UniProtKB/TrEMBL annotation:
<protein>
    <submittedName>
        <fullName>HD domain-containing protein</fullName>
    </submittedName>
</protein>
<dbReference type="InterPro" id="IPR006674">
    <property type="entry name" value="HD_domain"/>
</dbReference>
<feature type="domain" description="HD">
    <location>
        <begin position="1"/>
        <end position="97"/>
    </location>
</feature>
<dbReference type="Pfam" id="PF01966">
    <property type="entry name" value="HD"/>
</dbReference>
<dbReference type="InterPro" id="IPR003607">
    <property type="entry name" value="HD/PDEase_dom"/>
</dbReference>
Length: 101
C-alpha cells in the first residue's frame, strides 16, 4: 500500500507524513472477512490510530487527517474521502487489493 501511496502522491501531491501514518495504521484492527462487524473495521482502526498518535503528541489536526483517511479507505465503510490523503489511501489500498504492483 505504501508503494502505491508514494506513486500516487508523486503525481497528485498530499502530505507524506499523514499518508505514512495512515498506511501504517489503516489495518491496525483485524476483523474477519465474514464478520458482521467487518464494515466497522476502518472506523475501529481510525480510533486506534487516534489513540496511538495522541500518545505520540501529534497535533489534533494531523490526527484527524490520519483518522479520516483510515475511516474512508474501506469500501465496506461507505465513507466518502474528503481529503487528498484519504483519496490517495483509498486508491492505493484498492490497487493493492486487486494485486497491482
Amino acid at each position: 500500500v505504501w508503494k502505491n501511496c508514494r506513486r500516487i502522491s508523486k503525481l497528485e501531491g498530499g502530505d507524506r507524513r499523514i499518508l505514512c501514518a495512515a498506511v501504517l495504521l489503516h489495518d491496525a484492527v483485524a476483523v474477519e472477512k465474514n464478520s458482521p462487524q467487518r464494515h466497522l473495521a476502518s472506523r475501529m482502526a481510525a480510533e486506534q490510530a487516534t489513540l496511538t498518535l495522541a500518545r505520540l503528541e501529534w497535533a489534533p489536526a494531523d490526527i484527524a487527517a490520519v483518522a479520516h483517511a483510515i475511516e474512508a479507505h474501506s469500501f465496506s465503510a461507505g465513507i466518502p474521502p474528503q481529503t487528498l490523503e484519504a483519496k490517495i489511501l483509498q486508491d492505493a489500498d484498492r490497487l493493492d487489493a486487486i494485486g497491482l504492483i
